[in-house]
Write a structure and sequence with these properties.
Helices cover 45% and strands 12% of the residues. It has helices at residues 3-9, 24-35, 54-63, 69-72, 84-92, 103-126, 141-147, 177-180, 191-208, 217-225, 233-239, and strands spanning 46-51, 75-82, 130-134, 154-163.
């Protein structure tokens, strides 16, 4: 089996890091693999802000809801959905930027950032580094926008912690492959039994890592999904120029 494929299959989120720097050469390479990812119509919508300043990382850790691994690790990458560059292109040819009125702009930015971030994750893990994605930056978007001086038509989508793991942590089980792979059409009939099976497996896993209060996948998921858990996203996106009206 290809070594990179094996590394990708062994992925786990790391939340404990050594006090050890990452060289600028490695960071530059990670940025280059991010920029090499495909983007819709070559719009190049992801922008990455590299954060190494300890004070800023501590602010980020607090704004993300109390995630100390953000400040513990040497590098944090902030992935920004960026249509400001498109606005400059629009101004250059005296045209109106309309796409940001539509939810399509938000989807394009999110998909392109996902592709770019996965490139970084694979590259970082191939170098023996650990990572953990941080969606919690959307918990306090106004503060993040101000902290990083983000202009209109940009939005902080997700972050990525990168560092040298203090431990490898246990790999979180995934659903059975049959719940993930559907052939030719979506087969909803098989899912209830597969989810039951996965809940049992997750319950055992959570007990083993001392998080039995989360119960299983279903209970944990619905603790979040019974509400809009980041309610500031929609109003701040509109304020930044992403109207999401069409």
């Amino acid at each position: 089996m290809n070594k990179i494929i094996e590394i990708m299959k062994q992925h786990r989120s790391i939340r404990s890091y050594l006090d050890k720097d990452i060289s600028d050469e490695v960071i530059d390479n990670l940025i280059e693999v991010a920029q090499s990812a495909p983007t819709s119509i070559n719009g190049q919508h992801p922008t990455v802000i590299v954060v190494k300043d300890k004070e800023k990382k501590e602010q980020l850790a607090e704004l993300a809801g109390g995630q100390p691994w953000i400040s513990q690790a040497p590098v944090f990458l902030l992935f920004v959905g960026d249509f400001y560059k498109a606005k400059l292109a629009a101004d250059k040819v005296d045209k109106e930027l309309v796409i940001t009125d539509s939810v399509e702009a938000s989807l394009v930015a999110a998909v392109d950032i996902g592709l770019a971030m996965q490139n970084v994750i694979t590259a970082a893990e191939s170098l023996g580094l650990g990572i953990v994605p941080i969606g919690g930056i959307r918990r306090s978007p106004e503060e993040i926008i101000e902290l990083f001086n983000l202009p209109e038509y940009t939005y902080p989508m997700v972050g990525l912690v990168i560092g040298h793991p203090a431990d490898r942590s246990k790999q979180k089980p995934r659903m059975p492959k049959d719940a993930f792979r559907h052939d030719e059409e979506y087969n909803k009939d098989k899912l209830p039994a597969l989810i039951d099976q996965y809940d049992e497996r997750m319950s055992t896993y959570l007990e083993g890592i001392g998080r039995e209060e989360e119960k299983n996948w279903t209970s944990y998921l619905m603790n979040f999904y019974q509400q809009v858990y980041f309610p500031k996203v929609y109003p701040t996106m509109k304020k930044q120029g992403f109207k999401n009206e069409r």
